[in-house]
Amino acid sequence: MSAFHFEGLVWHWPIAIYLFLAGLSAGAVFFAIMLKHFKLFHEAWHSPFVQAAAIIAPIAVFGGLGILVFDLTRPLDFWKILVFYNTSSVMSMGVLVLMAYQVVLFAWIACVFHVRIGQLLGNRLAIVRRLLNWLVLQEAAITGILVILAISLGAYTGFLLSALIGFPLLNNPVLPLLFLISGLSSGAAATLLGGVLLRGNPNGVEVRFIHGIEIPLILVEIGLLFTFFAGLILSGGQSQVAALNALGFGFWGWIFWAGVIGIGLTLPLAFNLWMKVSADRKFAYVAVTASFSLLGVFLLRNFILYTGQMTGT
Amino acid sequence: MQVSKRQFLKGVGALLTGVSVYGATRTLQADSLLQPEPESETKYAMVHDENACIGCNACVQACREANQIPEGVTRVKIERKGPFGEYPNQSYRFSRVSCQHCEAAPCVRVCPTGAAYIDKETGIVAVNGDRCVGCQYCIAACPYQVRYIHPETRTADKCDFCQKTRLAQGLQPACVEACPTKALTFGNLKDPESELVKLLKAKPSYRAKVDLGTRPKLFHIQTIDGEIML
Q: Distance from CA of residue B155 to its chain's centroid?
């Protein structure tokens, strides 16, 4: 039995990339909103970190959906998912969330950058300016709805897998929470990395604010991973078999212990704590820490997807 | 900012009130106005008698021909366990793996477009190929792992008790006809006079993975030879 090809494997790595990108988009949006609401206020549109999030969030969600469409066996029929709905299907409801999320995301980006968009428009397209002004009036509602949609999207990537009752490792109530929290932390990492690449100050207020949230997030994620596997092992039967298979000495065991736990959680936590006590944050520190976090979350998505399908009921 | 926050909260409150009022009135309607749909008189099921089965795979071949199933995929498999005992007194165990036509079918629940559905007339779990986009969610969701993507149509496919090919002509499913030892029995669960119901009442049977709550309609009569398995 090889790590990437085995009996019962249905969904493979493109799905893992999609799950990763959807969570990343939701996380980036979440942190951009937090930055604007608690730290930057009306100055948010100047911040390279908010700009980075505003670029990353739409691209990640489009990229993820693009991969999803190409992974269908009938890609040209994808529009049927948008036309026909099934309220009992997690995927179908997720499509609704994704559609609403994209609309509200662009409305929010327009609100945040309305000054810049107004400058670019000049005296052209009065109708667009009127729409923009109306959106700005609705900003609080748009922001509130977008927070709800981003959290829904982050959790949905987990619910999608936990609805598969034939696989005990996936059919697990902790999975949506685990994917939500790890998705948020990947969004934070992407926002930091994009921000410093756009010449944001690695010692600025945004980095300090995001790191302040990221340390508890990592700790919660470690707690959730522990709960996830302890719960499986204590359930006995095939749940236990699935957990021990995943965590054992095989390829995926190494990915989990070295990749997810080592590179993805322990090192970023250590770096974050180090940066917290040393007064000075440098570009390399911020960029490397964020890259490790991103890699860890990406490996976690693959690890859960593949090991989850290895053991059936 | 404070004003807009208050407005937002008001809006959310109004929305929640609306949803709950709608929900509450709907439940009242359900009691008084909505008539329950009359249940169909037909609910097809199948029994595989593992004592009679010799693992010859005639059912697999017959199904392939009747439903034009391409190479590389199959609607029905006979799984072989064994051998048990010492030569010359050796035996195998055979069990049928195919769509269980669950009453609470996970494939139907997860299908985003409704391409997977339960036919109300017959209780058969079927696929509407025109609706299928090939997301493979049903294939991942089926705990019996009997669904596959048809290599030619690129849509999800599986056993449908020959609904499209033979039931329509008043014939039994191809596998049932083809079985040389009469190990397969097909019929109407709701008809107390059917062979199927008589057999189920005469012999103890089991169904696979009932603990998942799928309520499958493929019954197995357990073999009595071979060793006791723990």
A: 17
Contact A72 B113 (CB under 8 A): no
Q: How far are the Cα atoms of A225, A227, A249 from residue A230, in angstroms, in the given order?
A: 8, 5, 18
- Half-sphere CA count of B195, side-chain side, radius 13 A: 11
Collapse the DSSP code of B84 into the 3-class scheme (helix H, G, I; strand E, B; otherwise coil) and give the result. strand
Name the average pLDDT for chain A.
94
From B220, B219, B202, B182, select the one nearest B44 (Cα to Cα).
B219
Give the residue from A18, A43, A24, A71 showing the smallest Cα distance to A194: A24
Task: Report whether A247 contacts A254 (CB < 8 A).
Answer: no
The answer on pLDDT for A48 being more than 90 is yes
Residue of B89, B48, B64, B73 whose CA lies nearest to B181: B48
- Residues on chain B touching A309 (C-beta within 8 angstroms): 140
DSSP-assigned beta bridge partners for residue B125? B118
CB B142 within 8 A of CB B209: no
Q: CB of B166 within 8 A of CB of B44?
A: no
- Name the band, by pLDDT with cuts 50, 70 and 90, for residue A236: very high
Q: How far apart are CA B88 and CA B32, in angstroms?
A: 69
CB A268 within 8 A of CB A292: yes
DSSP string over A251-277: HHHHIIIIIIIIIIIIHHHHHHHHHHH
Cβ count near B164 (within 10 Å): 11
Q: How far apart are CA A132 and CA A128, in angstroms?
A: 6
A169 near A8, Cβ under 8 Å?
no
Task: Answer for the pair A200, A191: CB distance below 8 angstroms, yes or no.
Answer: no
Facing B114 at nearest CB: one of A84, A166, A167: A84
State the Cα–Cα distance between residues B157 and B73, nearest whole angstrom: 10
Question: Among A8, A74, A89, whose Cβ lies nearest the Cβ of B112?
Answer: A89
Q: What is the pLDDT of residue B116?
A: 97
Tokens of A26: 């939701």
Buried b (16+ CB within 10 A) or exposed e, A93-122: bbbebbebbbebbebbbbbbbbeebeeeee
Against a cut of 0.90, is the pTM above it? Answer: yes
The 10 Å CB-count burial string (b at 16+, else e) for A135-157 is: beebbbbbbbbbbebbbbbbbbb
Which is nearest to A214 in space by CA: A190, A195, A196, A198?
Answer: A190
Sequence-distant (≥ 6) Cβ neighbours of residue B189 within 8 angstroms: B43, B44, B45, B123, B196, B197, B217
Give the pLDDT band (50/70/90) at residue A126: confident
* Confidence tier at B79 by pLDDT (50, 70, 90): very high
Residue in A7, A37, A89, A313 to test binding to B, most B beta-carbons within 10 Å: A89
The helix or strand, by DSSP H or E, that contains position B97, with its residue range, turns out to be strand B91-98
Chain A neighbors of B112, CB-CB under 8 A: 81, 84-86, 89, 91-92, 95
Report H helices in A113-174: 114-121, 126-137, 139-162
